[in-house]
Each structure stands twice: as structure tokens, then as C-alpha cells.
Amino acid sequence: MDINKLEEIFQDIYGAKSEFCFFSPGRINLIGEHIDYNGGLVFPCALDFGTYALVSLRDDNKLNFTSTNFDLKVCNDLDNLAYNKEDDWANYPKGVIKIMQDKGYKTKGMNILISGNIPNGAGLSSSASLEVLTGVIINNLFNEGKIDRVELVKIAQKAENEFVGVNCGIMDQFAVGLGKTNKAILLDCNSLNYKYADMKLLDYSIVIMNTNKRRALNESKYNERRAECEEALKIIQKEKNVQNLCKLTPEEFDALEHIFTDEKIKNRAKHAVYENDRVISAFDCLNKGELEEFGRLLMESHDSLKNLYEVTGIELDSLVEEALKNDGCIGARMTGAGFGGCAIALVKTDKISSFTDEVRKAYTERIGYKPSFYSSGIGNGTHQIR
Ligand code: GLA
């Protein structure tokens, strides 16, 4: 990102220099998909591309939002923040600010210019990136940086759940807010305990592959999966006192499998239980440098998301299948909510170029349009640059 160029744009729009600059990353999830809302373990990491904000303070109560990514300027009054469909992307920062106000945190008027290099709708958490970014701005500028980072992450999730109306789990905001250079985060979404793991990828790299299928209209499917998991949990709770699906081991689940009459509901629960178990193994493999086994777990995860959880689709499946045909690739899976968006592949670093050529060609032949590929470092969580 060219911050000097961004500064010029800021001055053109607001007629004066910006005072502060912030950055917030996107994220990928290595493994542990669709289980954050089932009390499971997830294993995401923050990317080194994301969302930037230039900010200057105002003497009045006005909030001005502009973005280089969208042709929409939004002006709101701090005393009167409400969801407004026409405000589009600005509802994310507005939601965070509103929730912080409700919690008694200090806010003031600002001019804000946002600029992101996370592809929109690619499932790399551009919205969580923007939410946590807003939380850190309000914390650093008006609350002396005293608000705990996990509290900010919870506020960001609450904004998405209650203000924007998307019923997401906590994984994305957590990865964005607590990411660390070259580390993945093993997060227990039930207790919010977490620990970092070194990304010891040896002579392999993670390649992010974008299906370029827009993830429009997926919120209803996402909410449907959540409801199905709740139904499965109720069925299990008739037999066993468990707080959430991921509290069950695969063996405990197998012993209860017969109580389901609806195959679909059983499959959703089975995915959650086995995926949680895979995360534990994957964390272990990464620590020990057992990358072949780590890659195998990624493939198992994708198969489960395809066959049991049914959130992949032809684009993600084709991308993953073509990736696995390449002899430099030892594992691949969808990442994020699914139904389009991105997949990740574990690829021998010196084979990346032939890998992307081959996968691009084969995917384009099958799907009719090109995928995109990104290589990203594993970066730090949201922070102030200036
Ligand atoms: C989206 C949600 C997350 C998580 C993933 C699936 O990214 O925002 O909370 O549920 O899907 O793992």
C-alpha cells in the first residue's frame, strides 16, 4: 500500500493532512472450519495484507467515512448512529463505534479514509478487518489504549452480529485482532483461551487460491448451518449432558450416532466433532514439522466440508482437486465460510510458479473463468502505524 498516495487522497477529500495511520490484516484459517460457533478449536493466522485507515480529529460530533475501494461517502452524527442500508460498508465501523458508545467508551468526531487490499467477498475477512480496525482507532485515540484486545474483538463480533445482522462466530475478529508475525493462533472458541504456534513450513508455503466466485447470498446458508448444529446439539443433549458439539470426542459421537433420524443433521454434527479433533492433530503436526500429515488433515477437512457439511460447491472443489494433482502440493482445503471465496494449498516453495500455472489452466477450463493466487506473509494483528 502506498501510504503517501493515500495521504494525497486524504488531503484532496478533507482539505488537510491526516494525523494518524492504522493497519488491520485479513486472515486465513488453516483448519477448524465452521466450528467456532460450536465451541470448537480453530487455527487461523493474520495476513500481511489488509485494511488501512488515515484519520484526523474533528472539533464537532461528525463522523466522515470515505474509502478508495467504494465510491460512497458517508457522513453521520456521533449522537445518532443507526444501521442504514444505504451506508453500505460504513455500517461496519458505525456498528463498532455505536457498541463502544453503549459500553461507555469515549468517542469523538473524525475524518476517516479507508483503503484495503483484501479482495472483497473472497472470504479473507475484509469486514472483520475493518471492524477491529475501528475498535483500535477508538481505543488508541480516545480511550488511552486501555481497552483489552480480546474485549475489542468481542465488540467487533457484536457489531457484526447485532448492528450489521450477520450471525458470525468469533474466529475472524480474533485472528485479525491477535495475529502475530509467523504464528498461527490456536483458539478455543468456548473459553477464548489461545496459544500461538510457529508456522514452521520448512520448504513449503501457503498459497491462497481465490475461486473468484462472489460469496453473495451466503448469509442465509451460513445461518442455516448454525441452526442445524443447534438442532443436532439438542438431540445429543437428550442423551448426554454436553455444552456444545465440540465437547464430544469422535468416539463419544460414534456411540451416539444411532440416535439421529435425520442423516443431514447427523452429518453436520459429525463434521463439527471430527473437525475439532483434526485441529488438535494439526496443531501437533505443525509443532513437530510433520507437514505431510498436516497436509493430509487439510484434505480430510475439505472432504468433510464438502460431503458432511456441504459448504464447498463446484468452484472450491475444482480448485482443491486441481491443486492436489500437482506433485508440489501436499494438502489443500477451502478456508472461511465457503460457498465460493478462497482455498489454501500447502505447496513446495520452489514449485509455486508451475503450481499456479497448472491450477489456473485446469480451473479455467472447468469453470470458465480464472482463479487468482496470492502469497502472503503471516503478519501482526491490528496496530497503529503512525
Ligand atoms: C465465517 C465466519 C466465522 C467462521 C467461518 C467458518 O468466516 O465469520 O465466524 O464461522 O465462517 O469457519
UniProtKB/TrEMBL annotation:
Q: Which family does it belong to?
A: Belongs to the GHMP kinase family. GalK subfamily.
What's an example GO cellular component term for this entry?
cytosol
- Tell me which species this is from: Clostridium acidisoli DSM 12555
Q: Which Pfam families match?
A: GalKase_gal_bdg, GHMP_kinases_C, GHMP_kinases_N
MF terms per GO, please? ATP binding; galactokinase activity; magnesium ion binding
Active site per database record:
172
EC number(s) per entry: 2.7.1.6
Sorted UniProt keywords: ATP-binding, Carbohydrate metabolism, Cytoplasm, Galactose metabolism, Kinase, Magnesium, Metal-binding, Nucleotide-binding, Transferase
**Where primarily located?**
cytoplasm
Give residue numbers for the site Transition state stabilizer. 27
Pathway(s) annotated for this protein in UniProt: Carbohydrate metabolism; galactose metabolism
The entry's ATP-binding residues are: 67, 121-127
Protein's recorded name? Galactokinase
Asked whether the keyword Amino-acid biosynthesis is assigned, the reply is no
Q: Where in the cell is it found?
A: Cytoplasm
Q: Which InterPro entries match?
A: Galactokinase, Galactokinase_bac, Galactokinase_CS, GalKase_N, GHMP_kinase_C_dom, GHMP_kinase_C_sf, GHMP_kinase_N_dom, GHMP_knse_ATP-bd_CS
Q: Locate the residues binding substrate.
A: 33-36, 222
Purpose: Catalyzes the transfer of the gamma-phosphate of ATP to D-galactose to form alpha-D-galactose-1-phosphate (Gal-1-P).
The record lists the catalysed reaction(s) as: alpha-D-galactose + ATP = alpha-D-galactose 1-phosphate + ADP + H(+)
Domain (Galactokinase N-terminal) spans 9-56
Residues at which Mg(2+) binds = 127, 160
